[in-house]
Specification:
By secondary structure, this protein is an alpha+beta fold. It contains 3 helices and 9 strands; from the N terminus they run βαββββαββββα. The strands form 2 sheets. Strands 1, 2, 3, 4, 5, 6 and 9 form a 7-stranded antiparallel β-sheet that branches. A two-stranded antiparallel sheet has the order 7-8. Helix 1 crosses helix 2. The longest helix is centred in the middle third of the chain and has 22 residues. It is elongated, with a radius of gyration of 18 Å.
């Protein structure tokens, strides 16, 4: 059986939350968004943090850099059209969560971005990562079964 091409995508979202005085509430916003997001559809808790979204993607807070931010990692798919659908679903999910966050009485403004540079008062970078599994023949790869996932 020929190997399949498998791909996935991970998006990092910068979140800026302001109170009525214009002060930043980013930590409050992250905490609240994590509590609100699972109420937008059937979700399952992920074993260490975050949750599995209704479409199988993973929503979580990444704190591995100098600032915490939201990430969504899509489920692995086998064609580019599916991948685009998962990415668009992730963006839609984040926008719905941000709209719910705006209803918090402490919050006056919410900005969510999914680009490579956050130009807010605390600059940082965020971006996206793509992963691909490219089929390789056994002849070209050698006969090491442990290196061939499918």
């Amino acid at each position: 059986m020929p190997a399949r091409t498998v791909m996935g995508h991970e998006m990092e979202y910068a979140l800026v939350v302001l109170d009525r005085r214009g002060e930043r509430l980013d930590q409050h916003g992250l905490d609240l968004l994590e509590r609100l997001a699972p109420t937008l559809g059937p979700c399952l808790p992920w074993e260490d943090r975050g949750f599995a979204m209704p479409n199988g993607s993973r929503f979580y807070r990444d704190s591995g850099s100098n600032w915490a931010h939201l990430e969504i990692a899509t489920a692995e798919v086998t064609n580019p059209l599916e991948l685009v659908a998962y990415v668009e679903a992730a963006h839609h999910f984040i926008l719905r969560a941000a709209e719910a966050l705006r209803k918090d009485p402490l919050v006056s403004a919410v900005t969510v971005s999914c680009n490579t540079v956050d130009f807010s008062t605390r600059p940082g970078t965020c971006g996206s990562h793509e992963s691909y599994f490219i089929p390789v023949s056994r002849e070209a790869h050698g006969d090491r079964e442990e290196d061939l996932p499918f």
